[in-house]
Amino acid sequence: MLKIYSVLSAFLLTASLAHAQGNGPGVRGARAAGLGNASVTLTDVWSIGNNVAGLGQVTSPAVGFYAENRYLSRALNTAVLAAALPIGAATDGKATRGVVGFEAQRFGDKLYSEQRVGAGYGYRGSLISVGARFDVLQVSIEGLGSKRAVAVSLGGQAEVLPKRLYFGAYLYNLNQAKLAEYETERVPTVLKAGLSFRPTEKVMLNAETEKDVDQAADFKAGIEYQVIPALAVRGGFSTLSRQTTGGVGFLAGQFRIDYAAAWHTALGLSQHLAIGVQLNRATK
């Protein structure tokens, strides 16, 4: 019994420190992390987790690996492998039959861990993109076993002003998947919505709000400046997690490397690294 109480205490501490990761949508990619996770309008391989509708604008096969260390704690490590595969030929900045995406994620350590396997599909019309995603989630606590759940998510994006103003929205776990009978514990249901203003080809300004049905709303904002085609710098903040963020992105041929750091006034430093490969890269 004492062991169970110890495990539960450690789990509660971990869950409180990892809020906004947990079983929720979390952060996908160091580019998003550098922008304060104001990522609902982004369109790359990490759209599989940020907003599945963004997959609809991926025009060539891509694979990415993402690693996060939160607050310098090994118990709060996240590793993600993602892939996007367009179906049909790419024309007018989109794949004619849409794009399928896959993701595998692990968070935590031996004491408490979460695993997620997801598949999604995104399709872009003229100015509107839509997408859907299905997840199989597993939560494991040492000594207490594992629980699984299936979550369904939907996303949408639109060009309000072509090439200038974009809107995005993402509803994660719309089916309110249940993890345990005790106190009817459910996977968080989260709604994200935001705007992206791009006054020039070099500047992107993102603003976004995120609301977990059981938590206060979070406001996030970020800015990206494309210094040269091969180098981008980013900054951002999040009000709920009280973090300020910064990052850089490097592009070398088919390879893209992004790094971001986030600072929490009480808990300290988090670091994010993403490495991506885009095959047969096409200009969008």
Explain what this protein looks like in three dimensions.
With 284 residues, the protein is mostly beta strands. 9% of the residues lie in helices and 56% in strands. The strands form 3 sheets. A 14-stranded antiparallel beta barrel has the order 1-2-5-6-7-8-9-12-13-14-15-16-17-18. Strands 3-4 form a two-stranded antiparallel sheet. A two-stranded antiparallel ribbon has the order 10-11. Strand 6 and strand 7 (128-141) form a beta hairpin. It is globular, with a radius of gyration of 18 Å. Residues 1-21 have low confidence and may be disordered.
Mean pLDDT: 88
Topology as a string of helices (H) and strands (E): HHHEEEEEEEEEEEEEEEEEE
- Per DSSP, what share of the residues sits in E-state strands of 2 or more residues? over 45%
How many DSSP H or I helices? 3
Gross morphology? globular
Distance between the termini: 59 Å
Organism: Hymenobacter lucidus
Protein name: PorV/PorQ family protein
Signal peptide: 1-20
Keywords: Signal
How would you briefly describe this protein structure?
The chain has three helices and 18 strands. It has about 280 residues and is mostly beta strands.
